[in-house]
Every structure is written in structure tokens, then in C-alpha cells.
Amino acid sequence: MRTLPRRSEFGLVIAGVLVGIAAGLSVAAMTLIARTMHSTIFGLAPDQRLSGAAVENPILLLVAPIAGGILLGILLLLLARWRKRPLVDPIEANALHGGRLSLTDSLVVAVQNLISNGFGASVGLEAGYTQVAAGFASKFGSKLKLRRSDMRILVGCGAAGAIAAAFNAPLTGAFYAFELIIGAYTILSLTPVVVSALVANLVARLLSPSDAGIDVGSVGSVLPADYVPALLLGAICGGVGILLMQGVALVEETARKSAIPGYVRPAIGGIIVGLLAMVSPQVLSGGHGALHLNLEANVTILGLLGLFLLKAVASAVSIGSGFRGGLFFASLFMGALIGKLFAFAAPYLGHASLAPASYAVVGMSALAVAVIGGPLTMTFLALEVTGDFPMTALVLAAVITSSFIVRTLFGYSFATWRFHLRGETIRSAHDVGWIRNLTVDKLMRADVRTADAAMPLAEFRARFPIGSTQRVVLVDEAGKYAGLVLVPEVHADLVEAKDGSVLVRDVARHRSDVLLPTMNARQAVALFDQTESEALAVVSDMIGQRVIGLLTESHTLRRYSEELDRNRREISGEL
């Protein structure tokens, strides 16, 4: 079993099928648990969606999110004592860790997501779906001892299956994996990812035939003149997406700077969400029921605007206060509201042939790409939702506009923006972990020649004749680094005081320029360029400065180039 996926693309496809089955089962199980929680806690019928139902007892709308916040806070308190390391999501795992993430941590995230969504917090289940499916894929890949590139593809298979099963949209799931989880589309990854998405969707539909994704009804015909308002709507959604991500970051930063403990914040967030739910229950949960309700009904401008603001605040407060979940479906719902609002202004733009549902689809995709990223992902979602190719082309124009606005003015999607706030530098799932793993301690030579910095120059020449070594690292009487000496240079300069007072430290170079073992190859190359040196000493730390090795610029560049070439060949499918 381990040999087949390592030696054959067919073996990787079989692994993708198994991961797709696990993803479909995970989505079906989490959906069933969440729907059961909604029915039990809020007293709904089994076929009712929480955000689209009329809850008879308004007190439940306030109490349930608070209870969920308290329960989540207790779980966070226990996790703080039990698991010290941060939880890794699929994007971070593929970007930094070669696709490796903990299945236990993934199940913990799923439980947190179910508690948050089940008690009515304004978050979707998509984050939990992808986390669990990717966790199963990573665990399976570890058992098979897959190579780094194959492991990343298999994690992408898990995420593709999860999104495909959640939205009844295999193409959407596949391109979600390519754009957001793997970070690149290759011929090698195409078959396993698409097969995993198809299998996961089939499994989920067999187990949950009623959860068939998004139904927008008829969207009407598209004319060339419709592209102008669509482009404008895409630009508006790009700006709104930036404001929404900044709002979530503001809530998180405010909560972090406050004196409120982390395990108490979800309960406070639950109070705010509960109060907003008493104004409109449509802010609860991901928003599936509310989306269909507003697509089918004729709502006033004030009604749409009020609901959008309530949902935006509820989502920002839910995530910022510590509820676990994502903005995937919330961004689709809010984008649909913006699209229907835009439909009221469309007649004043000189052309109004599109139905409000059409603008809702355009707004839905454009805001989702602004927040989540993945232009082709959202374009294929529109195609699979509407089944209309002219409408899909219109959506593509709006999506590209929205994506361009966000990349130009902001530069991040929601996931990568949160990484940035945490201090990470990654902007996507492109594999940069190999750069961090290519550290100085793995590149350096440990058999370094050293000498006492107080040694007279004549004695140094006698001990290190020409040809014995190229460079010698000097250390002082305390054993600390004191500089670097080039042996040929010392022998070339024969001028010396007659009394032997010239010491070798007097001709030393780079007395304060050193490398640390934890630096990566890119940082080392930058330091070589800055110091204009062909070699630098490696010290244990900046305080002790005990010499542990020597690294040359040529060797660093050669290894760096080799890794770049190997990474390129993996992406192109040559390996």
C-alpha cells in the first residue's frame, strides 16, 4: 500500500478516492449533528434551516448563543491546559509543514465548529468540514509515508471533497483545492483531486440527499450591456470584503487588548449575537435558510440593508470573540444581499435587463472571492449553482474585478490576513516550508578550524601554512567568536612589527557578522550579500557566540538552487 502511491499516479488516485469517501462521510456526519442541535436547541422541524425559520420562543434566540459561548469557553480553558501548540489549518499545513497536520487537532476544531454553529453563532461549518477531511488525508498520507509533494496533493483532495460535498459542487471543490489549499494547478494533481471531489459529493448525496447546496432558481438571460453593472458590483464587493475583514480583525484586536480572559470572550460574543438574533433570527448560523428566503422574497431596500449590517456585525463578533468557524457561507449570503440591493440601483445605470436573482448570484460570488479568495472557485460555484454559461461569464468578470481590487488595495484573503496578524508571512498555500526547513545548521560545515584571537601573527602563519585551509575562525579567551581570517591573505601581507606585537585579531574580518543555526537559506544569502563575504561563521546564539560551524555563500546558493529546481519539477509534474 505504501509502495503503490509512491511509484504510480494510479496509487495516488486510489488514495484520493479513499480520502473522498472520508470527506463525504465527515460532511454528512457534521451536517447531521448540526441540524440535530438546531432542532433540539431551537425547537425546529427536522427539515428547517435555523436562519430561515421562525423561532417561537424569542428567549432562545438570546440564551442559546450565550450557552454555546460558555460551553466553548470551558473547552478553550481545557485545551489551554491540555494542548499548548497552536492548531494548524490545511492552508498553513501545506504552506509550511509539507501537508502534515494533526488529526486530533482537526477533530478538536470540528467540535468547536459544531458547538459554535449548533448554538447559533454566525459562522458556517465549512471550516470544520475542510479541517476534518484534510486531517484524515494527512493522517492517511503519513501512514503511507508519502513524499512531501504527494502529501500536499492528498491534503488538497480532502479539502476538495469537503467543499464539493458541502455545496453539491465537485468543480468548486476541486478548484478550491487548487487555488487555496495546494496553491497551484498541475496535471499530476488534477486526477486525484477531481476524483476525490466527485466521490465525496456522491457519498454525501447518498447519505444526505436533501442537502443539495444552493438553489437560486431562474437567473434570466444575459446581454453584453450587463457587463458594465456587473463590473461595478464586483468593485463594490471588493471594497466591502476589505471592510469586513478589517472589521473581524478590529474585533479580535479589541478583545485581545482587553483584560477579558480568552475563555470568557465567547460568552460575551454570544450575548451580542443573541441580541442581534432577537432583531432578526436570520443572522444565526451560516445563513443557508436566510439566503434562500431572501432570494425568493421581495424585500425592501431598508430590509436588505438592515439584514446585511446585522449579519456583518454578527459574523465579525462571532469570529472575533472566539467562536470557531469561517466566513465562507456568510460571505455568500451577504454578497447575495448586496446584489439584491444593487438591483434597485441598476435601472439608473442605463440598463436593467437582469433579474434581482442574477445580481444576487454576481454579488454572492464577488464578495466570496474578496473574502475567501479563489476566483475560479467562485466562478465554478456560480456555474454549478445556475447551470448557465452566459451567467457564469458575467460572474467571472465581476469576480476578477473584485479579486483585483482586494489584491491591489489589501493584498490578503481572510485566511492569509489572519496569518499576517499572527506574524506569519505566507500569502497562500504555495509551499514555502522547504525554505524554512533548509536552515543554516543543515547547510554548514561543523569541522571548522579555529584559533586564539590573541595569537601573534607569526605563530598563526606557522600553524596554518598556505594550503592547509582557506579560512580560520578566531575565538577570544572566553570562547566567543572574534572574527574570520583568510589564510592566503595573512601570508600575502608579510609586514609585521619586529617585536611581534601584531596579533591575528588585528587582521580579522567580519567581527560582528555571524549566522545563526536557525536562519534559513534565504536569510543566509541576504546576509552574505549585505556583508559582501564569501563565508561566515555560525554561532550558537547572539549571547554566548560559541562557534559551531562555517557556511560559504557558494554552497548555500547551490543547495538553494537545487531545492528551487526540485520544487519546480514537482509543480510541473516531472517528479
What does this structure look like?
The chain is mainly α. It is built from 24 helices and 5 strands. Strands 1-2-3 form a 3-stranded mixed sheet. The protein has a two-stranded antiparallel sheet with strand order 4-5. Helix 21 (457-463) links the parallel strand 1 (450-452) and strand 2. Helix 8 packs antiparallel against helix 16 (375-386). The longest helix has 34 residues, at 9-42. The mean pLDDT is 87.
**Total count of helical runs of at least 4 residues:** 24
Secondary structural class: mainly alpha
Strand proportion, as a percent range, falls in under 5%
- Helix share bin: 55-70%
Indicate the topology:
Blueprint: H1 3-7, H2 9-42, H3 58-82, H4 90-96, H5 103-118, H6 126-143, H7 148-167, H8 170-182, H9 187-207, H10 227-257, H11 265-279, H12 288-296, H13 301-320, H14 328-345, H15 356-371, H16 375-386, H17 389-409, H18 414-421, H19 433-437, H20 440-443, E1 450-452, H21 457-463, E2 471-475, E3 481-486, H22 487-492, H23 521-531, E4 535-539, E5 547-552, H24 553-572
